[in-house]
Write a structure and sequence with these properties.
The structure holds two protein chains of two kinds. Chain A is an all-alpha fold. Chain A contains 33 helices and no strands. The longest helix of chain A is centred in the C-terminal third of the chain and has 34 residues, at 429-462. Chain A is flat, with a radius of gyration of 33 Å. In chain B, strands 1-2 form a two-stranded parallel sheet. The longest helix of chain B has 45 residues, at 427-471. Among the domains of chain B are: 55-134 and 152-183; 303-422. The chains are: A mainly alpha, B mainly alpha. Chains A and B meet through helix 2, helix 4, helix 13, helix 27 and helix 30 of A and helix 1, helix 10, helix 21 and helix 22 of B.
Chain lengths: 601, 486
């Protein structure tokens, strides 16, 4: 294998004899050629240590040539090497010698494996900044040109990422050459290269002079946006955001908008999806006037696209789009031009579309104000709360806080309750879990009375759910509720019910009591813990199931710090000592641990 | 957890839990749900008001003067598309189009002299209008072709007939590539190739035959087709890892490679080394490995000097964690060894048998078993025998070790036979290796210890450096050069 059989006559035994501290380095360099990939990888990862020990000169003259020669290796090793070299400037003697790192990185930038190549480009970009302007033109720019005119597509794709870092500091003549190279890559006959160029077009545009942007970048953008392959066209949409930011309104209208309009109606759904996905960025980049004239109609089309993927992506952007509209006239635009389309989406055939909409639609209420929300949005919320897909309902419920601020939650509570109850009993435990997480929020917004009447029983039912994750979440939920409603409420409503479970025939339920006590004791305080909870815990030390007994030990360890010394010494200690002699090893272990943590041993 | 058994209560809990079925839908259930709607089509985008089709007279009833005119009218009529996702709309028009397409298929396959020069344009237009479309997004984002049912093309009732017609057209004795090449050009082929990503296997099957015919009849498009396939594969390997038609394209390539002239062009060798070999890294290799291995072996049969780079390439991409893929690799290696020349074998025996030695000691018994099956292959056995002095030392350690340690009795039995065979090939060397086995192991252990020691020292060194750096950040440079200069 490469590293092993490689012909590289590496730096010979660096300081093999004499200096003892250098001996490992010599072996390390041997390890760079070891047969075992893992060992080669380890040594590459310690490359900076080797370089540090060799000193800058020998790193330049021996280590780097050796590395350049052994570039044929496993991709994993090459990846590590590409990464290391990016931080090597100091190790080869600082910026004056940064160019020494270019040969190995150049080879790495041409390998097949994408991750290696990308990492090499990343390192090259990093190092380019450390070059002096002279070194940049003498060493770095020629490298970019070589890569840009390489035979195999890999080097040309790598070159695409390097133009923007060397352009700003190059002289005018060189700048013209760099632009020329970039141009030819944009019309490369390999689609991989055109994709790479398209994805860097925006970044490159940003470092160009405005005239060149207009005269050179725009035509390239137009070409890429009408490429025969949709994978290229969709990348042009991304570039559009950057280019639009650079141009005046007039230029935008004349140079970019025709292309963008065309992209929004592309025959490939992937391109339309991209427009929908980048909609907020595009909106910001083109400014309010073009947004009103062009983007809103385009957005309407995306909202009723024939492909669900596109509709879902557009639905996701509804709130941001509305938020970013200019305040004057915003309400009218939303009411007349957006809302009618949203109403359609509420009854879309695709659940992803509906759930995307449900995740943002509540945000509109703050923008539209109380009256509009009650009149126009509320019916939509209510419809979505009854949707057949739990994700839609859940997304509505999880964003209730937005509506609460505007119209108060009471408006919704009648419809909310059936929706919550249904989700609380959903067959999918992940749905149940999600609704539990919103309970504290809902409780806060609906108030203690409503909660006690309608939701308390649900919260208690989750404690005996047959999925552990739900029982666990239910326990945490109780703790959060106690923090919200106070200890008195806890003592009256929660604690008695929890403690009753201590004598449940199901040992899992008995353990739930213990877990609840663990979670609640701190929020409930010393008095409740000592008087009501502790006796129950202690009683459970005699449980016939070992799992319950060792959880008693764990609980005692947990609530110990809240108790006073008397209770600890007189009640807890004897029980723990007894458990410390238990026949079960786990019980013994946890009892002894509790004793030592509570300093009772 | 505790060892004591749960009491009665637990049992009752288990019952209630099983009564209250949890939401973990079984994969089979989810799949059944999906199958109901596993039809997709992106072909139909609202074209404004939908034209209603009116039946035209039958071609066979027309006079020969009118026939040509009517043929073209029918072709134009078939350019109109219908929405098959909506199963109730345009039923009458859909049926008229279906009947017309059937008639067209019949017409071109039973009549001679009907494919005249003026018809080519309409024919290709009709085909393009129907089959070229952006494929719909996959219904199931993590579609696993091995497990899941594919999404079928909803408009198949029409598209199938269009493909049928296309094939009859290409295969007709009247078909003239010199005229057709004006319409079936690079852009046409490009779009055709993109369709190979269709999730519908029926469509890919038609495409395979169609592309094969085009490759056969249009000499001017051959290089272009190969290059585009090249690009599709590279994109598949390095960008998307997803393309449904890889197996079909490889199948066509298999016969293309078969027809390559000797000596092989550099372009073809590059395709082998830079595209076909890296394709072995794909996640879904199982879906097209048979076709891929066939292509590779075709190359080696053409030019044996490619054996060494190919095997080294496979060794470079040898799967590290996926046993299923490892078994496939071993299968491919055996196929290659079946056709290898003894001189080529000598060039790669060392790295190759180091890998095989790792495989036979794999704890996954299928990998070990597959590797050990090499010893059932007479030709491989003869190669091993010729080079026993080289191979036995490489293999001996692993074989000896697993003959004592492997958990699977079948493997142990197989290893025993292999050891016996090897012993018969060179008894003396075998005895020597047995004798030195222990010493060898001890030397390895010692080396391992040394390595650990080395890393320890290295850590210390790093700490020391860090300390030095802290102490004298400004003159670190000079300290370093003091320690590193001898």
């Amino acid at each position: 294998m490469a590293g092993a059989a490689g012909p590289g006559t590496g730096p010979v035994a660096a300081g093999g004899d004499g200096d003892d501290s250098l001996y490992p380095i010599a072996v390390l360099i041997d390890e760079l050629r070891n047969e075992d990939v893992q060992l080669r990888l380890n040594s590459i990862k310690k490359l900076s240590t080797i370089a540090l020990a060799l000193g800058v000169e020998r790193t330049r003259t021996e280590l780097l040539p050796f590395l350049t020669d052994t570039i044929y290796d496993e991709d994993e090793v090459l990846l590590a090497l590409a990464e290391q070299l990016g931080n090597f400037t100091g190790l080869v003697g600082g910026p004056d010698f940064a160019h020494c790192l270019l040969p190995p990185l150049e080879s790495l930038a041409t390998v097949e494996e994408t991750v290696v190549r990308d990492k090499a480009v990343e390192s090259l970009r990093q190092i380019s900044q450390e070059h002096t302007p002279i070194a940049l033109e003498a060493h770095f720019v020629p490298l970019v040109k070589r890569l840009a005119s390489g035979d195999w597509f890999t080097s040309r794709t790598s070159a695409c990422g390097l133009f923007s870092v060397c352009y700003p500091r190059a002289s005018n003549a060189v700048k013209a050459e760099i632009r020329q190279h970039f141009r030819s890559l944009c019309s490369d006959d390999t689609p991989m290269v055109r994709r790479a160029a398209a994805s860097k077009l925006g970044e490159f545009a940003k470092v160009l002079e405005l005239d060149s942007v207009k005269s050179e970048i725009v035509p390239l953008f137009t070409n890429l946006a009408s490429d025969e392959q949709d994978s290229v066209r969709l990348l042009a949409v991304e570039a559009c955001v950057s280019i639009a930011q650079l141009l005046s309104q007039e230029d935008l209208e004349a140079l970019v908008m025709p292309t963008l309009r065309q992209a929004a109606e592309d025959k490939s759904w992937r391109v339309r999806y991209m427009v929908a996905d980048k909609f907020s960025e595009l909106q910001k980049a083109v400014g309010p006037k073009i947004t009103l004239n062009d983007l809103i109609p385009a957005f309407q089309n995306l909202l009723k696209d024939c492909e669900a993927e596109v509709r879902a992506a557009a639905a996701h952007k509804v709130k941001e789009l509305c938020e970013n509209l200019p305040p004057e006239g915003r309400e009218t635009i939303i009411m007349n031009q957006i809302l009618p389309f949203i109403k359609e989406l509420v009854s879309d055939t695709n659940q992803h579309v509906k759930s995307a909409l449900a995740s943002v639609i509540m945000g509109l209420s703050t923008i539209l104000g109380k009256e509009n929300t009650i009149e126009h949005l509320l019916p939509l919320f209510l419809a979505q709360l009854k949707d057949e897909c739990p994700e839609v309902r859940l997304n509505i419920i999880s964003n209730l806080d937005c509506v609460n601020e505007v119209i108060g939650i009471r408006q919704l509570s009648q419809s909310l309750l059936p929706a919550i109850v249904e989700l609380a009993e959903d067959a999918k435990w992940r749905v149940r879990l999600a609704i539990i997480e919103y309970m504290p929020l809902l409780a806060g917004q609906l108030g203690v009375q409503f909660f006690d009447e309608k939701l308390n029983s649900l919260c208690m039912a989750w404690l005996v759910d047959h999925v552990y994750a739900i029982r666990e979440a239910a326990t945490n939920n109780l703790m959060k509720l106690v923090k919200k409603f106070g200890t008195e409420w806890a003592q009256n409503t929660i604690v008695p019910k929890v403690l009753v479970m201590a004598s449940d025939p199901n040992y899992l339920h008995r353990m739930t009591t213990l877990f609840c006590i663990n979670a609640l004791s701190e929020a409930c305080g010393q008095e409740i813990t000592t008087k009501q909870m502790l006796p129950i815990v202690l009683k459970m030390a005699g449980d016939q199931v070992a799992n319950v007994r060792f959880n008693v030990a764990k609980s005692l360890q947990k609530i110990g710090p809240i108790l006073d010394t008397d209770a600890l010494q007189e009640e807890v200690k004897p029980i723990l000592q007894k458990l410390g002699q238990d026949e079960d090893v786990d019980v013994k272990y946890f009892a002894q641990e509790a004793l030592s943590v509570l300093a009772l041993a | 957890m505790s060892s004591s058994s749960p009491p009665v209560g637990a049992a009752s809990a288990a019952i209630s839990a099983s009564e209250k079925v949890d939401g973990f839908t079984r994969k089979s259930v989810r799949k059944a749900q999906r199958q109901k709607r596993s039809q997709g089509s992106s072909q139909f985008r609202s074209q404004g008001s939908q034209a209603e089709l009116h039946p035209l007279p039958q071609l066979k009833d027309a006079t020969s003067n009118e026939q040509q005119e009517l043929f073209c009218q029918k072709l134009q009529q078939c350019c109109i598309l219908f929405d098959f996702m909506d199963s109730v709309s345009d039923l009458k028009s859909k049926e008229i189009k279906r009947a017309t397409l059937n008639e067209l298929v019949e017409y071109v396959s039973t009549n001679r002299g009907v494919i005249v020069e003026s018809a080519y344009s309409d024919i290709v237009k009709m085909i393009s209008a129907n089959i070229f479309r952006t494929l719909p997004p996959s219904d199931n984002p993590d579609f696993d072709p091995e497990e899941d049912e594919p999404t079928l093309e909803a408009s198949w009732p029409h598209i199938q007939l269009v493909y049928e017609f296309f094939l009859r057209f290409l295969e007709s004795p009247d078909f003239q590539p010199s005229i057709a090449k004006r319409y079936i050009d690079q852009k046409f082929v490009q779009q055709l190739l993109e369709l190979f990503d269709s999730e519908d296997p029926r469509e890919r099957d038609f495409l395979k035959t169609v592309l094969h015919r085009i490759y056969g009849k249009f000499l001017g498009l051959r290089a272009f087709i190969r290059k585009q396939i090249n690009n599709i594969f590279l994109r598949f390997i390095y960008e998307t890892e997803h393309f449904n038609g890889v197996a079909e394209l490889l199948e066509i390539l298999g016969s293309i490679i078969n027809g390559f002239a000797l000596p092989l062009k550099a372009e073809h060798k590059q395709f082998l080394m830079k595209v076909l070999i890296p394709m072995h890294t794909a996640k879904g290799l199982a879906l097209f490995h048979a076709q891929l291995a066939y292509c590779v072996v075709q190359f080696l049969e053409k030019d044996t000097t490619l054996t060494e780079p190919v095997i080294r390439g496979l060794l470079k991409f040898w799967p590290k964690t996926c046993s299923q893929k490892e078994v496939m690799f071993l299968g491919e290696i055996e196929e290659i060894l079946d056709v290898i020349e003894p001189t080529q074998f000598k060039k790669i025996e060392e790295p190759l048998f180091k890998q095989i030695s790792k495989c036979v000691s794999s704890s996954h018994f299928q990998v070990a078993e597959r590797a050990l099956y090499f010893w059932n292959n007479e030709y491989i056995l003869s190669l091993i025998e010729e080079n026993i002095d080289k191979i036995l030392p490489i293999m001996f350690g692993s074989l000896y070790k697993i003959s004592k340690e492997h958990w699977n009795p079948t493997i142990v039995a197989l290893v025993y036979n292999v050891l016996k065979t090897l012993m018969e090939m060179n008894g003396k060397l075998f005895d020597d290796l047995t004798g030195s086995y222990k010493a060898e192991r001890q030397r390895e252990k010692k080396k391992e210890l040394e390595r650990e020691e080395l890393w320890k020292k290295l850590e210390e060194l790093k700490l020391k450096k860090a300390l030095e750096k802290q102490n004298s950040a400004y003159n670190m440079h000079s300290i370093l050069s003091n320690t590193s200069d001898e």
